[in-house]
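Subject: sequence -> structure tokens, single chain

Hey, anyone have a minute? Need the predicted structure for the following. Not urgent.
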Amino acid sequence: MPPRRLISTSTYKLYENGDAELDGSPNYAILSHRWGTKEVTFQDLTDKVWRRDNLDAEQMKKIREACKKARDRETPIEWLWCDTCCIDKTSSEELFRSLNAMFEWYRKATVCYAYLEDVKWDPIRKQMSKSVGNPSQESVWFERGWTLQELVAPRFMEFFDRNWNFMGTRDDLSNKLQSVTGITKDYLTGAKSFKEASVATRIGWMAGRTTTEIEDIAYSMLGLLDISMPIYYGEGVRCFMRLQRTLMETSSDESLFAWTIPADGLTCYRKDGKTPIWAPDRWGLLAPSPDCFRRYRDLVVLPHLYVLRPPGGYRRVQHGTQFVVPMVKNEFINVFGRLRSQVTFPLNCWIENDNGKPDGINLELRIDGNVYWRYQCDDVVKKRGSKPHNGRAFGIFPQIQTMPMTVGQPEIDLEELPKRETKG
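Reply:
Had a minute. Here:
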């Protein structure tokens, strides 16, 4: 589905699907940028008086420059899409459709222009500067949640500095981008599809990023995780939990459960002066934040390798996640045929060790009543030299009785951080 609206790169007028000028599926450029305090809105561009009086205004500069870059290409591009003014954000239905389709819009664009308004390009050294506003940090473009999909999705991408000087294509800058974002450059150059990366890897790319609305931490990953879900604002941090539950319905990738508490805390929630309320020593399998996946961005899921559990994966239950385990004496079942009080639970995901062999990833679980809970969330158990079984190993299970094993999942919320006293 193409974008509903596009901007003419010659007249800056907004056109909708159905207009004669937008007949068919025209080629279009797309703009990736960090929102400022004053941006051009859909209401602005559809107001004839505003357009007449403000086409030369400062807030139009990004759009004018992007349109110029599109017009000046060897094969000129007549249309531009920009998120600030091509979506009517007063319509909840349109917002739902747009947020779920946006990744694909970036994917289908002829070119994506990334505008980094706080960096300067050194044409002699061929280097981009640190952030002009904060020389100790990289551009704020790399800190925003929405710019993650804008970096990964496009087929072709060009970067520009604050003065719209060309810095290079995504391929040209792939080493720098890999260093700053933690995304292996093969996913940036197209050598690998982002869909080849495990769920933990893709969510891990979001670690350290923030969004204006807390819910957008989840919504900005919809296309990256290839899922769709209803858009609600007001549920706060629970939105990321809903994202993971939605993912469980479409994916059997168990790297979703392979996360740890980051040493510097859950940074994505700090900007509002709040801290998560949760119990890391009595938790479930779903992470409270993308920050928890930072350490294990290199996890892989190998279709031909499995841990020795019955097939069927897992399923969501009302207050957690349920697996099926064989009723024979093993790491889950004791000699009396009952669930053990404490287990080291293996996941179907792996991390390569120094010898190039897959190490198994395991979680520490304790039982309370009939439900297990994860504890020691600050780490996972890596079993060096684990010997995963191939699919044929499951052949031993069909004649063995199985039983369900449930891991509980509490909810998470935010509370205000205590204010520091200042001396007068």
